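Hey, resending since the last one bounced:
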Amino acid sequence: MSGIKSKAVTQWFLRLLISLFFFVLTACGGNDSGSAENIAESKATTELPSGLQKLALTGGGTLTAYATIDGDAANRKIMTINSAGAGSASVSIPGLSRAPHTIVIRYFYAVGGENYLLAIAVKNIDLSSGSGSLFFRSLEYDTDSFDYDSDNISNVAELKAGTSPGIRTDITAPVFTSGRRIRVPENTTVTGYTAVATDADGSTVRYSLVGGVDQALFSIDSNTGVLSFKNPVDFEAPVDSDQNNTYVLGIMATDGVNPVAQSVTVTISDTALESFSVIPQYRSVLLNGNEKGADSYNLYYSSDKAFDTNNYLIHNDGTYLTNVSLPMNVSKLDNGKAYYFVLEAVYGSKKILSAEISGRPNELAFNGFIFAMDAAADGRLYLGGDFTSVGVVSGGGVAVKSTSGRPGAGDYPLVDGTVYAVVTDNQGGWYIGGSFRRVGGLARNNLAHLLADGSVDSGWDPSASSVVYALGLSTDGKTLYAGGNFTVMGGKPRNYLASIGADGSLGSWDPNANGVVRALAVSADGKTVYVGGGFTTMGAGGATRNYLAAIGTDGSLGNWDPDAGAAVSALAISADGKTVYVGGLFTTMGGAGGTTRNYLATIGTDGSLGNWDP
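The structure tokens again:
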């Protein structure tokens, strides 16, 4: 970054981090927010140390602050920095009402044709009394989330060190695809909510908490977006601001350049309703649960996910049934459509809502032949045969709960074939590979991306020419590696191995195996892809690699050559990243005259055969 001196920048940021920002906001009028007299001209001022202004002028760049009121980014107010005297920034903010407001301050540093976002702070102020004041202290600013070149060093830290944050051309802000509300049972820190935002520029998105009256009760994983309570919450002793078991917070997603925020509401339900469950059937669902002493029970349902029970009529198929009793059958539903159910328990004047559950009715499937059938007068059809189970069609892939093995949601997309490989996208969704032609009603040749909300990614369609047996995701989550029996991927030649970007584009990675790939694992450091299968050569030059090989993520063939005696069908890497576990049809490892290893072996990442010999 030409023109910026390391020492000067260091001094500048040290002053920035100890500076105190002070706002004075006033509002006039009555309590009616719609009345004209409720609006007033308000002023906000920021006092900054003189060194900050001078350094902003001599450091080769310009420091600018913006104030945004109540999320109205289109009308943000620039706080022009004045270099005279001690330095100050001021702005006139017209039209504030006697009501609560959210103030967002953002700091940018412009240099070399780039405008770097450095820090952001969010606070709420209640002007119902007519006036109020805010203090923005250095520790209240988020600086870690802004990293233009995605090198895990913030813009502030890089400028402070006298280096450039890097040149980025991002002009598109992330877009939230995750919902705004979720309902969960009490006595757990798990909310079941994962924030998901996609970025059209392909940039890494990170998450943080901003605003919301109950923000302090939560934590969020900045990489995965998984939201958790800091402590378990009790339905009978709510700790939210209104003490009504409805917790409100704000989540920010940023690609290091463009931050966006979304309000999320987490509603807690009583454990008395935790047993509420659904079994899909033909054109109906069976609802089960343990009734525990409520005066009565009511049922809401809709085909809209996370529907609002207070306004159920505005939702698709919105229905409210009173005085229901479990178990109960809900009929006249459409096959292939997911429905969402919420049970309401009534205790006098108090009403408690269960967590939302879902089920998808569908055609019945039998695991054997039907030899006889007869219809009863009431319309029921009796069937006989050599089948032992009957259930609704689920397709070749289904999401299940890890604790019970039962389907975790009724809205997973139907796969019309076999799924051989699944890998998480680290955003709450999955990549799947196998032998299929349609997923969730969309044409998908052997590869598909399922988003966190259960929908099929409409923009991700690499189209493998044949079966996909193995998948692996790069450590940064931006590249999917696929192995199988295909020879074409995305319309271009790719013999048995290929890489696909998170945006669905075909990568240049082309190891060119001469036979099927059935297993794949990415090294812990993200630099090497280990593959196994039925191949005997690898690379454009046809280097010998019998059934096992290591390929750099840059496409180069590694020296790792265990030389298995027959085909390999499974691979796994140890937690410390030093050992590769191998399974297959081999009985030796190490080529002709090699060491006996019947179907299982370990090989070090240095190529040495391990002593492990089950």
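The radius of gyration is 30 Å.

Sorry for the duplicate.
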